[in-house]
DNA sequence: ACATATTACTTTGTCTGTCAATGTAATTTA
DNA sequence: TAAATTACATTGACAGACAAAGTAATATGT
């Protein structure tokens, strides 16, 4: 893990990242933790404490829902599922990110940029 | 000012943005404030309080230096100049941003991205 | 068999950057 | 001459990220 990435550069994207993972199927905390590391190509680790904080936040806001897995041995894995409003939220966040990315390019690079502006979505 | 951009999406880029402005010539607080709004195409306003906080931070760390303009009427404009380490810092920050941007794309968009990976500089 | 590592979830407290609110004072415009 | 703009500054609050520490189960190594 090179981890060049300062926490402030990711700040604000945590929720979007989690929602993206959950959009591809239900998952539980530790697995999501591993998935994010893998997705980043081992470049970024979203810390566990941050993750679990985000789960609370997202659930409270109704973007995800949780249920315990039926592991039959102890109260093991807590699974998360993305809700409909969660999917909407993800789409919105993704748009915002594309928008912000373009503005940031303008602000960080010197003058006027060519145009690498295709929100895709 | 549509200001779609949440503060958390910019967080961590403030210093880089300021250094970028100062790289194109000395300037003073209020002008930098206006320049950033213009540079963003009126899409983003870096708040004054944030700016002045950043000036302190950057000066303390030796990335910028300040001097009073010779307005001869009152202690008017405080100009800022980017230092050599400031220029280096800017370059580093820009690289970090390109790197983080690519990782973020991976984390926010679903699967594996094509490749829009040319750090430029 | 026993220690260690890994899986899995949780809480508490701290730090940092951003910004609202507020203030001062000079200059410019209506 | 009142109001707006320019220009700089401080204070206090808030939110997100995370280090640290902990609990408890299962798996692995020796």
UniProtKB/TrEMBL annotation, chains A, B:
<dbReference type="InterPro" id="IPR036388">
    <property type="entry name" value="WH-like_DNA-bd_sf"/>
</dbReference>
<protein>
    <submittedName>
        <fullName>DNA-binding transcriptional regulator, PadR family</fullName>
    </submittedName>
</protein>
<feature type="domain" description="Transcription regulator PadR N-terminal">
    <location>
        <begin position="18"/>
        <end position="91"/>
    </location>
</feature>
<dbReference type="InterPro" id="IPR036390">
    <property type="entry name" value="WH_DNA-bd_sf"/>
</dbReference>
<dbReference type="Pfam" id="PF03551">
    <property type="entry name" value="PadR"/>
</dbReference>
<dbReference type="InterPro" id="IPR052509">
    <property type="entry name" value="Metal_resp_DNA-bind_regulator"/>
</dbReference>
<dbReference type="InterPro" id="IPR005149">
    <property type="entry name" value="Tscrpt_reg_PadR_N"/>
</dbReference>
<keyword id="KW-0238">DNA-binding</keyword>
<dbReference type="GO" id="GO:0003677">
    <property type="term" value="F:DNA binding"/>
</dbReference>
């Amino acid at each position: 893990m090179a981890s060049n990435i300062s926490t402030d550069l990711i700040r604000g994207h945590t929720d979007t990242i989690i929602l993206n993972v959950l959009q591809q199927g239900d998952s539980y905390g530790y697995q999501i933790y591993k998935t994010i590391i893998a997705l980043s190509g081992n470049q970024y680790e979203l810390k566990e404490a941050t993750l679990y904080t985000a789960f609370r936040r997202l659930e409270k806001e109704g973007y995800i829902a949780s249920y315990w897995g039926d592991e039959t041995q102890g109260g093991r894995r807590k699974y998360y599922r993305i809700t409909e409003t969660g999917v909407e939220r993800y789409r919105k966040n993704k748009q915002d990110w594309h928008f912000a990315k373009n503005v940031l390019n303008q602000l960080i690079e010197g003058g006027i940029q060519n145009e690498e502006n295709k929100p895709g979505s």
